[in-house]
Amino acid sequence: MEKFSIDGTPKTPSISFDLAAGVLEIKGRSIPENSIEFYKPLVDSLDKYATSPKGQTNVNIQLEYFNTSSSKCILDIFKKLEAIHKSGSAVTINWHYEEDDEDMLEAGEDYQAIIGVPFKMVQVED
Amino acid sequence: MLNIFDFYHKMEENNIILSFKGDITSELLTSILQIMESKMENLHEEPKMKKKVYNVLVECLQNLYHHMDDTVGITGERRSAIFMIARNNEGYQIVTGNYIANENVTGMKNRLDEVNALTKDELKDYYKQILNNGEMSLKGGGGLGMIDIARKTGQKLGYHFDRIDDKVSFFNLEIKISQI
Questions:
Q1: Which of A28, A33, B45, B82 has its CA at a distance of 20 to 30 angstroms from the CA of residue A99?
Q2: Between 3.40.462.10, 3.40.50.11030, 3.40.50.300, 3.30.565.10, what CATH number should domain B4-104+153-178 receive?
Q3: What predicted TM-score, i.e. pTM, was given to this entire model?
Q4: Interface residues from chain B to A (CB-CB < 8 Å)
């Protein structure tokens, strides 16, 4: 499986993971009641990718909303990326936030403080 | 006969823009969130305010939703919950109510007091600590909800418990979001 993708819904984000290119994108809203169930396929796919990652992995996170239930799953995903980064294959996480959304910027900084992967804070227009 | 005008008048008086009593289901939450989004759109709320209210509302309502699973021994009518959303010039107010087993009251009270005692920076550190080290419950809550609400609103969580009988109490939670 070279590409993994899930369409977005009002409560869950769209996910696109191009394993061959080393690009993972998560966009939209992540407010499901059961986040573990939702993120499990991505976690499995990341485990597979981690066995032979690309030299550079780019991760684009562009969330409008996410709930605290998702925040744990997102951390788990970042921890998997951190393991890839530490094993010698570079990972960059681009954390997008809308210019007036200080809460989203702060959430990105919280992850940045916990995860040993280079973060880029990317401001987007409303 | 039930006097519906009393309800109408009370809701008007308290600036209630939306209220619900009953079972909290996933579908209900989806609908409520959609309704609140379009209401805030019609009220021309600032994007920043809209996001804050939406975020806090998600946490409040999902707390109620997850709580339904915890109410072991609480059956029938007592599985229902209530919530109201009010708006005035000062901002929004989200009030929720649900039954809680008496043996869980002290634990809940301690958690709320703990969150209320923390400053903005302490809440940030506490959030990161629970996020990173806390055990995640199967439902994914993991105790971050209240901390997140306190962080995003910058206000104390208002609460009280009404003891109903020797088994249950009614838990009242009041969240305020000031106009930015």
A1: A33
A2: 3.30.565.10
A3: 0.92
A4: 26, 29-30, 33-34, 46-48, 51-52, 54-55, 58-59, 62, 65-66, 124, 127-128, 131-132, 136, 138-142, 144-145, 147-148, 152
